[in-house]
């Protein structure tokens, strides 16, 4: 790909955290699962806070860091998995309106591709900036709030605790703190039923609440063995990582830090830390940081990127690998190179 595209600004909105021990003591979270997942806390937004509110807060911070004026933003993308708070509504237009981004040539879109949506949005924004020179910045924002009775952050995923957060990045053709060296995706639709199970389609959504992803996966395992499921997930991850590294012209040994999904240890270990997976040292990843937040869906990769930028864990010229996984299955990986002086 020709011209360089950079991350010029990044921001987050992270609510207060509830300790896992509190949830265990209250009977909301199983102690054995807590020990397996190694999570320390989960961030929980105040009642009546919508995911898009967190995305707006994060976007304000990202635009300020980038020095991007509203009239200079030519693309607004909003990424989410959780309920927006309205039916038949367009959240990215709310972002555009609230941030004061003028209409006209500015494009808006919502990206829904599971928890890989934000990195898919990064790819879309990168392509937009290469094709549309009129406005120099593109905004990609993400937001998640997991609300009962539909979602139980402590039980919906048997191996992962869910956290609320918003995050955003501003991309630019004119420089920034990191160069986007590569971004690509890999899909495997054979795994799509894993998140659907044997539940029928229904309108309105008259099904079991809270959502039980483990039960849906168990139903799917009657048609595909666990060993085949695990093998396909591992192969998909390896494939997208290899492609991203090849596009960037580097190897995994050249990567200083890895931003991973903010999942529990039980989910991450076979794919990222085990020798059959990527074989990473956990200290080379964002795992320790994520233990105090929880899985924030689409916001995970941008939160991890912000952590690397703000903590000084990425030296000038060093590379970071950023990975996101969405049910479906979709894997997206980006390679960033620090341009910090």
What is the count of structural domains? 2
* CATH superfamily annotation of the largest domain: Thiolase/Chalcone synthase
Question: Largest beta sheet, briefly?
Answer: 9 strands, mixed
Strand line-up across the major sheet:
5-4-6-7-1-8-11-10-9
Distance between the termini: 25 Å
**Any idea of the CATH topology of the largest domain?**
Peroxisomal Thiolase, Chain A, domain 1
Please report the total strand number as a whole number.
11
CATH architectural designation of the largest domain: 3-Layer(aba) Sandwich
Globally, the shape reads globular
How many helices? The count is: 10
Low-confidence stretches: none
The whole-angstrom Rg is 19 Å
Helix/strand-derived class?
alpha/beta
Q: What oligomeric state is this?
A: single chain
The CATH class assignment of the largest domain is Alpha Beta
Portion in helices: 25-40%
Q: How confident is the prediction overall: mean pLDDT?
A: 96
- Spell out the helices and strands N to C: EEHHEHEHEHEEEHHEHHHEE
The percent range for strand residues is: 15-25%
